[in-house]
Amino acid sequence: MTIVKNDLYDYGLYIYQDNDNFKFSLDSILLAEFVDVSKKMDTIVDFCSGNCPVPLILSTKKKVDIIGIEIQENIYNLACKSIEENNLNNRIKMINDSIKNVKKYIKDESVDIVTCNPPYFKYNEGVSLTNISMEKAIARHEIEMNLEDIMISARYILKNRGILYLVHRCDRLEEIIVMLNKYHFSMKELQFIYTNDNEASMVLIKAIKNGNIGSLIVNKGINVANMNSYKGIFRG
Hints:
By secondary structure, this protein is an alpha/beta fold. Helix content is 24%, strand content 27%.
């Protein structure tokens, strides 16, 4: 494990990373930038927090309580180190556990926003993961949790009309829509992300718990391939 302290782009924050096994991705920044925090909101929970990029960025938007949940202890420790480095202990708290156990820590219907940058790939026990570390495998593959776990846990802790923000691969959008409908989330906004000029690779989703059907906003796609700054990319 090689721990380094990096600038968190242009947010005036620092983040600790493991150069050998785990570093946050652009997806986390795009997710955090996509989130709209209103004045009436006071609690955000970030599922699959990793080394804490989403909570750190969200802390620059509004003064709200932020809770991050990360199952892997080594990565959780990096998150805690980053929080301390940025003097945000009074704003951000971390939980080292599975999101499936969220009921142990957070009251039902007490949260305004849930964010999640989850593992993107389904786990097939017949597929070999021997070429990557278990730490990377858990971060990338649905070994410890899956899409349905996200919906169940988010629905439990979100207030009525609370908001779920999710970033995922476009090739799983149909499955995501099915899961959102199953757990009574109404999709309200889609933002497609391109890294080339051909087809979208990622999608950002905003969904409302028990929201009314209709009024879906599909934003113009954004190509992030040549951008120097992602701060304020969606709402200025």
